[in-house]
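Fold sample X.
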Amino acid sequence: MGGRVTAVSSNGQYTFTKPNRPVIRLLAGLGVEGDVHAGATVKHRSRMAQDPTQPNLRQVHLIHEELFDELAEAGFTVAPGDLGENITTRGVDLLGLPTGTLLRIGAQAVVEVTGLRNPCLQIDNFQDGLLKQVVGRDEAGAIVRKAGIMGIVKAAGSVRPGDPVEVELPAAPHRPLERV
């Protein structure tokens, strides 16, 4: 089970979108080198306001490019990096992975999946109505988050568009992803 990286993005400043790069470097225990969200403790502003000493379970943000196809069908134009992700993939069911899954990306990098991204209202500032497209409810009324997954870097390495993404599931029983 695997896919490919289609884009990589990073930004050293707090902005909603992140520019695409030819390569990003993942640093073990920290995240994306030079990215504003890199660090052993939380770097997202809302999380820092709650408790700046909590561990950073959101070092790397990954989104499946198939989401952009779905959004295009609903009339939205979203490209890699637009939603603030670091790694855009194709061919991996990111939202279906269990907590603790290892993603082997490129030649050396390994990211451990920690949970679902919990998108905020900034998405509607980017494109009005987009939040309702990436957060909704299923038939049973449970919240469904589609804006990607978060992870921590277990092994350092460079990541480029075209790199393979290999999925290593954790031992069963599997825990479904929850928001982090």
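Fold sample Y, listed below.
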Amino acid sequence: MNEILRSRLAKAAAGGTLAIVAVLQSHFESSDRRPLVPYLDPANIWTVCHGVTGPEVIPGKTYTTAECEALERKHLAIAEAATKRQIVVYDRLNPFQQAALVDFTYNAGEGNLASSTMRRLFNSGQTDAGCRELIKWVKSRVNGVLITLDGLVDRRSVEMELCLTWGRK
């Protein structure tokens, strides 16, 4: 993990889980600026702002910064609620573990979390083993072919580091 991201995550910790996830989103979903016009991501999914996808993304529309912020807050809250539904031990995890799982859910979706070995491991109390599962989620379909994406390798590595080592006593 680079030092800039490490510093931003450490500062965000005071704001709790969603503040940590917001730092991850801004780091992995775009450059320093939000893309205000939708674009196709590597998996050919229309995306805008810091990783917002779905029916609210209208190709060709230019979003305002305020619209992006509102969409990001909404989608982070959706991802957090989905993670809480799927991970029954969520409230026993530290904020960095929670953030790693919420970021995963924001990026990969509740369905992938629900069907994962990671979920089963967390829910059976095997937290470290569950954290190690994150690194397995580095592939996406690009033009119908399942391939490893460098961006997902980087993202999952950071999520796994947060999950395994940050916030431990």
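Sample Y note: Strands lie at 39-40, 46-47, 139-142, 145-148.
Also: The chain has a mean pLDDT of 92.
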